[in-house]
Amino acid sequence: MESQQEISHDILESLLQELVERGEDFSFYISLCLRLLARSPKHGWDVKAFMRGLEPEDMAAPRDPAELRTNPKFLESEWLMGKYSVLLEAFDEAVTSHHISTAAPRDTTLAGYDHRILWKIVNAHYSSYFEPDPRRRVTCAIEGLVGKDYSVEDLTRDLQDYLDRHACLLKLPDLCRELADQGKDLAFFADLGIRLLESVTWPVDDLRSFLQEIGSEDVVTPVGIPKLDWHELFRTSDDEIFADSEQLMQKYSILADTLGELSSPAYSQVDLAARVARAQYELFFEREGQTRLLKALRILLSEDYTADMLCADAEAYLADR
What we know:
By secondary structure, the protein is an all-alpha fold. It has 2 domains: 4-165, no CATH class; 169-320, no CATH class. The chain contains 17 helices and no strands. It has helices spanning 4-21, 25-37, 45-53, 72-75, 78-96, 110-128, 137-143, 152-165, 172-181, 185-196, 205-212, 217-220, 240-243, 246-262, 268-283, 289-300, 307-320. α1 (4-21) packs parallel to α8 (152-165), α6 (110-128) packs antiparallel against α7 and α15 (268-283) runs antiparallel to α16.
């Protein structure tokens, strides 16, 4: 007879497999990390920024260095070091604080939960680089979050809840296709973005005005240059590609300025504004209506704006117009 522990593990594996089959493993991983860090709003902001900036492809490239700090592959690569510098710094902070991981589970002070959860998140992400099966890399990181503050039962519950709440995403591609076919995709995005920003008081005046002009093809037509890495967007004014293009500077200056302000660590309002700005950024680089809208809308999802809310809004928009 199977033990309760074996049964729990089988259930967890089944849910993780379903998550992968739906293509939701990366989104779940990022949302879970941000939620675990949310209990410590004054700490771990750099790791939050790192997690928000990750793309699925960042999890896919195999990593084989024994240590990030000492391996020449990282030290000699400006791209890799720039991309992972936040992770390296957070890893150092977590390592120096690891001795407090034996603190009481109910201890939520900086010397307790903050450092324990920082350690788990950074170490889980770091460990995922060494998973040889690319299909298992995200789930390896998810499983690595289990520990004193986050149990197998917690993860199983959150997985089931996430899958239940995001089941409606299976129909989102069809909704995006219908919006695009009717020429309503950009108008829906603008309307939704403006509505989501209604409760945000800072720092989105320019971003809100920008969204109100989205009906103009001058605003939404993609530009024929390679897409900048998301982490580099706030430095666009210093980038040669941007500085040499008056058209590009006009298009991106508002987003760049907004995201420069949004690099501040605190405020929940910043999270929402950053998602709206990033979603708009993605629209510039997708030429097909269904694809560009689907990717942008997925970025808007959060604990406060869930998949079922998004699908309901899209259906209502189509019905009203």
